[in-house]
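Pilot study result, target chain (303 residues):
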Amino acid sequence: MIVFILCATIFSCSEYKTSNNNNFITVLGIAQDAGYPHIGCKKDCCNKNIGDNKYYVTSIGLTDIENEKYYLFEATPDIGEQIKYLKSGVANKKLIDGILLTHAHIGHYSGLMYLGREALGANKIPIYTMPRMKNFLENNGPWSQLISLDNVDLKEINHNQNIQLSNELIVIPFNVPHRDEFSETVGYKIIGKNKSALFIPDIDKWDLWKKSIVDEVKSVDYAFLDATFFSEDEINRSMKEIPHPFVLETIDIFMDEDLGTKNKIHFIHFNHTNPLLNQKINLRDSILKLGFNFAKFGDKYNL
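Predicted structure:
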């Protein structure tokens, strides 16, 4: 499989990197929950000079220019920098119009703490969350204090039920199988006037999902998919404890699909050990030549 990747010569296209549209997605982070460099990591992968590259924890932003609305998917530990970037040059004084959460693992919700008394002291920022996640936030500190102080306003959402953000923007949450210790886990389908996207930063394995990932990718224009680990022998821990679809597995699933389908896939949520995050140029180029893409901080995708 790896040999085939390294020898492939098909090139992908990249027309989505900037935006002049009314509605668009912005990549605000691509790293796994613990970020990069990783705490306690003394490996070469954490000791490199990352230069101007931004390796914030995985998040995407949704911009509605016409209605002057800005939404965040995930509340990461890097939420301050991510909102600052999303709204750079914007006169709108409101911090954010809503935050949509996927689940209760640290990189996806712990940024909520910066909305509280010790930091921003926000006023009823809408937080879109599934029922079990909502219950978790309501009944466990320090998150419950955000609610009692009216820093946040929890909006319950449900599997496969539309969230109408505007006349031209609809978001649909859907359950995916993952380690659900404290909450359910969802991905999102984001539907704009002209284009749509999938956002699935965490899932155990594609074949454990009731839906076909191939069919779901074909139904949208962009698919931001879990790329936590490149392969099985990447870390010195049992992968059964922290299952994710390996990038090699995802590539294999889509290998026989046409170039247009492969082009839709943008890998995201890279662990610090993933060689694709650490700029293994030859490896990245070989995957790009197969038609797949990599999410990059600051890239914009028209909807």
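One observation from the pilot: Confidence is low (pLDDT under 50) at residues 1-15. A full batch analysis is planned for the follow-on phase.
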